[in-house]
Specification:
3 domains, Udp-n-acetylmuramoylalanyl-d-glutamate--2,6- Diaminopimelate Ligase, Chain: A, domain 1, Protein-Tyrosine Phosphatase, Chain A, alpha/beta, 6-stranded mixed β-sheet, about 450 residues, UDP-N-acetylmuramoyl-L-alanine:D-glutamate ligase, about 20% strand
């Protein structure tokens, strides 16, 4: 982060300087005393079950030189900068938006129901062929993580690619205001976070708010094989002042793929940009990852990257931990797709293993969380995919997967339901035989990686 003066902070937040020098400056901002460094500006945030203001003494003890607060605080002498605001989260976001405006560089924002993290990583791989590029790390894709990521911008950066996520209406719109993207990439629309977004139409409205929030002459990158996006574009909901770059496989846009060949650990396809093409050996498996590659390629094309640079970046891209991570232990194929889960991603994962060779295919599925009123029908529907997807044995963990297990079991598929993770692991270890394929998937809250780790450890030591 480059230095930011107290005066600029006051202007961007509308805050009031309680103490300290308005010409003082900070080179780092923290919301967490566990990672706070000496000299930081500390911004305590409030949540449902916590209030960061209670950590102000720890922040001071660790060397913070400034505090932004929405509460009256006492006991600090005039050497500390104290700024009073109405809402500390909004202040964090407003400072980040002001800081972003310093940098006249291309910024790509990526959102969608599935594939946004992978697409962001692939885009970073491509853009890094030519530019020093900022990206968000880990799960820094929300109303707190995105502003903190933007503070990482410095004069050496020539581009940025940021994943933005939402689980409630209005969050994508607000993040778009903060990020001010020059390019918006939308991967797909599917059932996800319907606990807050209500239904598929609510999801679509929320995701499309990225495109609605783009400024004049910005570029919208859209998946034309996604029915929602196709219909949306066909009805001309996209502002005329935006440039559109379309991608797909079935519906060929500006960027598309032909001759797609899917293997166990990688994918091969011919990438077309306009009337030019190149062969791609892509180190991520599955048709869904070909779409992620196309989204990234289209975003890079929108930035003016050459076909050769896009090819090089695609072929250097690597998979992400717990996202279709394939490991062969002895003669057993273990697929760790435990990072997160929703109906469309489960369908895609089942479709992927349908084409792999194995003695038996075992699916271990944890609950798909945050679906609200759609939890029951969504878990019931997945049983049809299991029945039609060549799954030989089904293991379920959680409250709602009992519905899935019942549906799969009614069609003769051996299905076992558990509420206790340890019991599932014990039963599964007795089940596994040589030549099996085991796919493990579930929402983040289900911590399905613990099942992966237990199985991997047991198999490696046997």
């Amino acid at each position: 982060m480059e230095k930011i003066e107290v005066k600029e902070i006051l202007e961007s937040t509308g805050g009031r300087l309680i103490s300290g020098d308005k010409h003082a400056y900070f080179t780092s901002i923290s919301t967490d005393t566990r990672t706070l460094k000496k000299g930081d500006l500390f911004i305590p945030l409030k949540g449902r079950n916590f209030d960061g203001h209670s950590f102000i003494p720890q922040a001071i003890q660790k060397g913070a030189k400034g505090i932004i607060t929405c509460k009256k605080i006492s006991g600090l002498n005039g050497e500390y900068v104290v700024i009073r605001v109405k809402d500390t989260l909004k202040a964090l976001q407003d400072i980040a938006a002001a800081y972003r405006r310093r940098f006249q560089i291309p910024v790509i924002a990526v959102t969608g129901s599935n594939g946004k993290t992978t697409t962001k990583e692939i885009l970073w791989s491509i853009l890094s062929e030519k530019y020093s590029t900022l990206k968000n790390k880990g799960n820094y894709n929300n109303e707190v993580g995105v502003p903190l990521t933007l503070f990482g911008l410095c004069s050496s950066h020539k581009a940025a690619v940021l994943e933005i996520a939402s689980n409630a209406p209005g969050e994508i719109r607000r993040l778009t205001e903060i990020v001010q993207p020059t390019i918006g990439v939308l991967t797909n629309i599917g059932l996800s976070h319907t606990e807050g977004l209500k239904d598929i139409h609510g999801v679509a409205r929320e995701k499309f708010s990225l495109i609605r929030g783009l400024k004049k002459n910005a570029t919208a990158v859209l998946n034309m094989d996604d029915q929602f996006m196709y219909e949306w574009a066909k009805k001309k909901h996209i502002k005329e002042r935006l440039r559109v770059v379309a991608y797909g496989i079935e519906r060929k846009g500006n960027v598309y793929a032909t001759d797609v060949r899917l293997k166990e650990r990688r994918s091969y396809f011919k990438l077309w940009i306009g009337n030019k093409s190149t062969e791609i050996c892509f180190n991520l498996p599955g048709l869904f990852n070909v779409y992620n590659a196309l989204a990234a390629g289209a975003g890079a094309h929108a930035m003016g990257m050459s076909l050769d640079s896009i090819k090089n970046g695609l072929e250097k891209a690597r998979g992400i931990e717990m996202r279709m991570e394939i490991k062969k232990i002895n003669d057993i194929l273990l697929i760790n797709d435990a990072y997160n889960s929703n109906p469309s991603s489960v369908k895609a994962s089942i479709s992927f293993i349908q084409h792999l060779k194995a003695r038996r295919k075992i699916l271990v599925l944890g609950d798909m969380c945050e679906l609200g009123l759609l939890s029951v029908p969504a878990h019931r529907e997945i049983s049809r995919d299991i029945i039609n997807g060549g799954i030989d044995i089904f293991y379920a963990l959680g409250k709602f997967t009992s519905i899935t297990a019942k549906g799969a079991g009614s069609e003769g598929i051996p299905a076992f339901h558990f509420l206790d993770r340890a019991r599932l692991i014990k039963k599964l270890l007795k089940e596994i035989k040589g030549g099996d394929l085991i796919l493990i998937k579930g929402s983040r809250a289900m911590k399905m990686e613990e099942v992966v780790n237990a199985i991997s450890s047991a198999l490696s030591s046997s």
